[in-house]
Every structure is written in structure tokens, then in C-alpha cells.
Amino acid sequence: RGFAARSLAPRAPPTPPRPTATPRAMRFKTMFNGYSLAFSPFFENRLAVTTSQNFGIIGNGQQYVLDVVPGQGLREVARFETADGLYDCCWSEENENVLVSASGDGSVKVWDVASGPRANPLRSFEEHTHEVYAVSWNQVRRDCFLSASWDDTVKLWSLHGPPRSERTFAEHAYCVYAAVWSPQHADVFASASGDCTLKIWDVRQPHSTLTIPAHEYEILSCDWNKYNDCVVATGSVDKSVKLWDIRNPRRELAVIPGHQYAVRRVKCSPHDEAIVYTCSYDMTVAAWNWKIAASGPPGDPCVRRWGHHTEFAVGLDCSVLVEGLIGSCGWDSQACVWLATGDPVSF
What residues form DSSP beta bridges with 108? Predict the structure, then answer.
């Protein structure tokens, strides 16, 4: 269904590892097809990669945890097996060893990297009735996360308390492909759906606070600008990225029609207000300056484009700890990490 292919106590933040040499571009070959990639908010050398067998249509899943090792490349630290494909992952913001995966069987899996495979998953939340396609951890409150599903809903969860969702948000008319917390407001998040709308929510309110008919085709991704709490980016099947000011939603701030096929994921840079990264079914990853796009011709908003994937590029993230460090994964079973000033190369 849908366009896309198918309690731990809080710990004190760990002492950050000593800065390592700037990592050169590197790749890691996964057993299954890649779906998402997420850098750790605690360790600058750690990332998670979510994969699905048979392109996520049918089969098992694997959740990888990888470390960047100077002189050695990407090294596997942990791998968790699941009976169904995995589509997304996010790290806990309160415990450096915990991460969450979105599963094709409708469950949300919680993992502890510090424990062995037999101790995992720590929990499996099983309320969604269709595939879970996205997860997002609250960066402000740090004690809760969201899951977005093809059952048209978004659910709010916490690892503290009973093993059930705290609330269900059910206003979308079709698959919800993304739900992302605001990086500045503890109770606000955005959701993107196959019903072609972007919705803004405040969990203190009974209903969504804003609905934007953002694209004419399904919206597969959204993300908040890290410097302006009113700006949201959306990526769509219509091949475009749009930037929206939720205070004045009647018209987009900018339109970036830079891909040949659907935009699978959009990420706003944590280090530059004007930069947005995207990955697409056209197998490319790109960096854009949306402010140039907003000003119109003759400027070219494309800052850089990378063509290192040989199948759909579907996973993308930017490190908040290392400026300019980005990662991607794709259906070619390649996970890549590189600096935005360079190019991904085989390690």
C-alpha cells in the first residue's frame, strides 16, 4: 500500500570520545537493501543503518550499528535480525545505546546496542495495523518518540510507563510516510502523507493545528529547518522539494525541481540554514541552497550532486556532531559516509 516499496532509566550524557581525524569517504556493504541511515547524537563516529530483504517487498530485516574507525573504514558493531523488513530508525536522545526501528510487520522495535542479540529487542510495540515507515525521537523532551505508519496514523510512545502508545494522531487520509519532531519545540511535530498534505501538530491540542496541501502527488518526506522554527521542507513523488513557512502557508517559500524521479528523503543541514540535502529514486544525493531557489533565476540552487548509488537512494542523514559529514544508503546495499566537500569512494 502506498507509493514507496514496502524501560531504560535515563543516563547522563556520556563523555564524548576524543575527536578523531576527519574521516575520508567510505562504504559498507549490507546483506540486504538499505532503507535508512541515522548518525548517533552522542558519538561522532557511530551510525545506524536499517535494511530490508528483497527491496522491502517480502523477507527479513537487519538493523546495523556501524562505527567509523580511522584507517579501517566502517566497522560493524552490532546487528539485529528481524522477521520482517525494517524501513527506518532513530537514536534515543536520552540513552546513547538505545535505538528504535520501524518494521514492516507493523511493530516498533527498541534495541540496546550494549546488550547482546539474545537480550534484544528490549521492547516491541505492536499497535499499528500496517507497515511502520518512519520513527522520530524528540530532541527537546528526550523521553518520547513518534512512529508513522501506512495505517494512516502517527503514534506517540515513551519507554517510561506502560508498553502502549500515549496517543494516536489519525487525521491523514492515506499512508503517513514521515513524522518529524520540531528541533526547537518540545510538543510540535510535522507529518507528511500520501494524501498530499503536510500537517503540523501540537500534542497539547486535540487536532492538527495546520494542514497544507503541499504537493499534487504523494509527499514522502519532511524535515524542519534547524535555524528557523517556522520553516519546513517537503519532498514528493512530483520530483520536487518545497520549503514552507508555516506562518504563511498559502504559498511555498521555494521550489526545487532538481530530481528526475521521486524525492525519497529530505534533510535540513544542522550547520547551515540555507542548505537542504536530498536523496531520490533517480539514484542521486544532492545538496541545495533553498534561499537561491527562493530568489529565482538566474541562480542555480544545486550546490553539489553525488551519483555513487547504483539503485534507489533512500536513506540520508547529516551528522550534528561533525560539520559537513553526511551519509546515505540505497537499494544497492551500500551505506556511504563522506564529507560534503568531497565524493564517496570505495574504502
Answer: 102, 125
